[in-house]
Design goal:
Elements lengths: L1 H9 L1 H24 L11 H13 L8 E5 L8 H14 L4 E3 L15 E6 L12 H11 L4 E5 H8 L6 H20 L5 H22 L7 H30 L4 H28 L7 H36 L12 H12 L1 H16 L12 H4 L5 H11 L18
Antiparallel strand pairs: 1-3, 1-4, 2-3
Length: 418
């Protein structure tokens, strides 16, 4: 560790410039990486996955992608076949290449009273989180211009009404970083609170650069962008906090700037190295699983702790030696490792250890209680329709007509030609 620290101190300007370039290039690569991420949760080799893949290859749509439903009719008049045909023609013009199954050809898509019919539309999907991002607005326009009352529903229409987009990974990372900055300001009481965030930012952006390169070699799940930001913030801040705290202690004991960095790296730096390698190896175990999207999570779990360790062992010493003294402002915190608050907490916990253990267990059980009602899986049509809206009303009409909400997720069967 001393050899590495001496090298960093001798070439600290070069180290700073190198990390600055990595961060800048990583900032450019981050949106490229997120755009190249995969949204496939399939299990290659399994019958269902292979059937879906062959359906998409043969017809260009369907498979994992649920259809869009055009619900036609009202309670005043029976539907005619020509209404279905005119709507089918309009769909062909609005979404070229889409497959359509209509109540004109499929009696099961027409209610018994003949007043409600359904068109199942399978537009060609596009890569990304919204496979029908272009087709859905076009089909909604077709519904508005139809000669008979027509409404759009289906999994994607319901999800768009639900507003499932949420904040992007950048906004979530910035929000987490601001929260961490508040805590760090309370800990340090000076501008040194910026140090861990600088390490976290450099680590996250550099890892995005590596992930972008990785997307050119294999599919990488979109989940990794959130894990990268989450683990990157936590691990990088934790490692930097440990080293900076030890550096402040050495400064307070009267060590000169170079020696303070060396001593902090020889102690806290060694702990960071072993901790980061342990985290990386643990998460890298996911690479061995025969599930593609979990393997990509394993790659990210391997990368972000290692990059964070490298940043903490190279970038942080260079920053501390270059700007650490100037960032130690205002000096409102003692550099002594002793804390009256935490000494008091520790003393009371040891003195009343049985009560502390029981209390901590009760708190953990209370926090874990919501897991008992947790249901994992894809959102159902009923849950997506719970907030109402035109798509939810159209789905309710399908159900009231006796056609069944199962039309939202019909099962397609693929039989290869013999």
């Amino acid at each position: 560790m001393r050899v590495l620290t001496d090298f960093v101190l001798r070439h600290r300007r070069l180290v700073l410039v190198a990390w600055l370039l990595l961060a800048v290039v990583g900032g450019y690569a981050a949106p490229k990486a997120t755009a190249a991420l995969s949204y496939d949760f399939g299990l290659p080799g399994k019958p269902g996955y292979e059937a879906n893949r062959q359906i998409v290859e043969r017809f260009g749509s369907g498979g994992d992608n649920a259809p869009v439903l055009l619900v036609v009719g009202d309670s005043h008049q029976r539907l005619q076949r020509n209404a279905a045909r005119s709507l089918t023609d309009a769909v062909d013009r609005a979404a070229p290449g889409a497959r359509v199954a209509s109540f004109a050809d499929q009696p099961s898509l027409l209610s018994k009273d003949g007043r409600t019919g359904v068109l199942l539309v399978y537009p060609k999907p596009v890569p990304g989180p919204d496979p029908y991002v272009a087709a859905l607005p076009a089909l909604e326009k077709v519904a508005r211009q139809a000669a008979v009352p027509t409404r759009v529903t289906g999994q994607d229409a319901l999800a768009s009404e639900e507003g499932s987009g949420g904040a992007g990974v950048l906004a979530e990372t910035l929000f987490g970083g601001l929260g961490a900055l508040v805590v760090l300001l309370l800990v340090f009481g000076s501008a040194l609170a910026l140090m861990p965030l600088i390490i976290a930012g450099a680590s996250i952006l550099t890892t995005f650069l590596i992930v972008w390169a990785l997307t050119g070699l294999t599919d990488v799940s979109f989940i990794v962008q959130y894990l990268l930001a989450l683990i990157g913030l936590g691990v990088a801040i934790d490692y930097a906090l440990l080293i900076v705290t030890r550096w402040r202690e050495e400064q307070g004991r009267g060590a000169d700037p170079d020696e303070a960095v060396r001593l902090s790296m020889a102690t806290a730096g060694r702990s960071v190295l072993f901790s980061g390698v342990t985290v990386a190896v643990s998460l890298a175990a996911l690479i061995a699983l025969p599930v593609p999207f979990l393997r990509s999570v394993g790659f990210t779990g391997l990368l972000i702790p290692l990059v964070s360790v490298i940043a903490a062992l190279t970038l942080l010493p260079a920053l501390l030696r270059t700007a650490g003294g100037r960032l130690e402002w205002p000096r409102r915190r003692s550099t002594s490792p002793d804390s009256r608050l935490w000494r008091g907490v520790g003393t009371r916990v040891v003195r009343h250890r049985r009560l502390a253990a029981i209390g901590a267990t009760l708190v953990l059980l209370a926090l874990a209680a919501p897991v008992l009602g947790l249901r994992l899986g894809e959102p159902t049509a009923a849950s997506l329709a719970s907030r109402g809206g035109p798509a939810a009303e159209a789905l309710a009409r399908v159900d009231d007509a006796g056609l069944g909400v199962g039309l939202v997720h019909p099962v397609e069967e693929w039989q290869p030609a013999r």
